[in-house]
Each structure stands twice: as structure tokens, then as C-alpha cells.
Amino acid sequence: MTTPGTTTRGARSRFPKVPEGDVIASLDSYEAARAVVDGLAKQDFPVSTVSILGSHLRTVERVTGRMSFGKAALGAVGTGVMLGLFVGLLVLIVTPGVGFETLIAILPVAIGFSVIWSVIGYALNPQRRQFTSVMQVVATHFDVVVPREHAAKARGLLGPQAPAAAPATQQPVPSAAPPAQQPTASGAGAAVASAVPGGSAAPEAQEPAAPRRTYAEAQAEMRRLEREKRAKEAADDRAGSSTS
């Protein structure tokens, strides 16, 4: 449902989403935001790109009056009249020979039935209230949003008297922590010595053990040592024979 003076944006997007762009005015009432858009429309601005974004939603229950059995019955009279007319016209259509006297006779019956039903329902309602009200959802802050490519033009048309957009609040920047002091060589040695019981310096770290070899690597190493042993024995035999 659209209101007069608004533009349907169903052709842009199938699903509604929050408009993106620059806020050119921030106001506290819808009437003021509508006045801003009206001012842009009078100056031939492409208002089809403008959006009014409401925020800070609140639920408002407006009390319209007291509620009693009499008001419950009185409110059912209109429903009874509509019900009687519907049933009477239906009877006239289905049964052409029936006159309007039947319609006049049906109206009191329908009104009485509706009143009795409403009073009984009000009496049996465990959450019966003593007042009538209307629930509404109301926005308390309105932003006029336009695409970024049209923001400068919109601000120029509104002039210096345009409502200023709410400035963004700046978060305090936490101060950087002071750099930790690096211990000197003597201080580092003293710290290590104090950490070891007895006050002596910590022993040097031992070299990591050699990685464990696989079975194939161990067999290859044994064959290599065996060949070296045989080669050494052969060399010794040749040396002994040459000396003799």
C-alpha cells in the first residue's frame, strides 16, 4: 500500500532493504523529513532516488476510552447490521419470490445475535481489560538519504538552512602501551641465574638427539661398513705380501 506523494520502488528490488547513500538531513519528525523531500521535488531533483529512513522505533499504545459491557454490545451493532444485510441479500438472490420484508426481519435477528455473542465473549475473556486502545509503532528519528552521486546536488539545493546530519561520534583512541624495557646482558644473566635453584647459571641446552633411522637405512649402513672392512683387509694383505 502506498500513500499519496510517495514513489513505489518495487521495480528496483524484489526484496526491501535499507537504502544506502549519504544522509543529507537528520530530523526528529516525519513531517520535517517530508518537507525536505517536498523542497527537493519543487527544484526538479530526482526524488525517486530519495529515501526517508526512520529509526529508534518505539511501540505506542494509545488509549481510546473505557471498556464496558455496554460498549462491547454497542460495538457489535455495526457487525450485526452488516451480517444481517449479507444474509438478507443472499436469501433474496437464492429465493427470488421473497420480498424485502424478509430482509427487514433478518436484520434484528442478526443484530441481536452479534450483540449477545460479543457480550458473552467479553465476559468470558480471562484477560478482560477496562479500556480500549490502539497499538502503533512510531519512529523518533528520521534521516533523508540520497545516493552519493546526488548528495552534493541535494545539499546545494537545500542551501545553508538545511537540517544538518548528525555527526558521527568519535570513539576515543586508546593510548599505546609503553614499550617494554629490554634487559641488558648482565641483567639477563642475573635473571637466568636467579631462576635456577642455588643461584647457578642454567646449563647449556644439549644438542638434539639424531633422528631415528628406518630399517632400510640401518641395513644400508651395515652393508657399507662391511664393504669398508673388506676393502681394508684386502689392502692389508696386499701390503703384507709386498713386504715379504
Order of helices and strands: EHEHHEHHH
Helix content: 40-55%
Largest sheet: 3 strands, antiparallel
Q: Would you identify the regions where 5 or more consecutive residues have pLDDT less than 50?
A: 1-11, 166-179, 182-203
Structural class: alpha+beta
Q: What's the shape?
A: elongated
What number is the mean pLDDT?
75
**SS elements, strand count:** 3
Strand order of the main beta sheet, please? 1-3-2
The total count of helices amounts to 6
Gyration radius, in Å? 47 Å
Q: How far is the first residue's CA from the last residue's CA? A: 123 Å
Beta percentage is 15-25%
Protein name: General stress protein 17M-like domain-containing protein
Organism: Pseudoclavibacter helvolus
Domain General stress protein 17M-like: 23-90
Region (Disordered): 162-244
Task: Describe the model.
It comes from Pseudoclavibacter helvolus. Pfam families: YflT. Keywords: Membrane, Transmembrane, Transmembrane helix. Residues 162-174, 182-211 have a biased composition (Low complexity). α2 (69-94) runs antiparallel to α3. Among the domains are: 17-58 and 139-165; 68-129, no CATH class. It is α+β, with helices and mostly antiparallel strands and 244 residues long. The longest helix has 29 residues, at 215-243. Residues 1-11, 166-179 and 182-203 have low confidence and may be disordered. The chain contains six helices and three strands; from the N terminus they run βαβααβααα. The radius of gyration is 47 Å and the shape is elongated. It starts with 21 loop residues before the first strand and ends with a helix. The protein has helices at 30-42, 69-94, 100-124, 148-158, 185-195, 215-243; strands at 22-27, 51-66, 131-146. Strands 1-3-2 form a three-stranded antiparallel beta sheet.
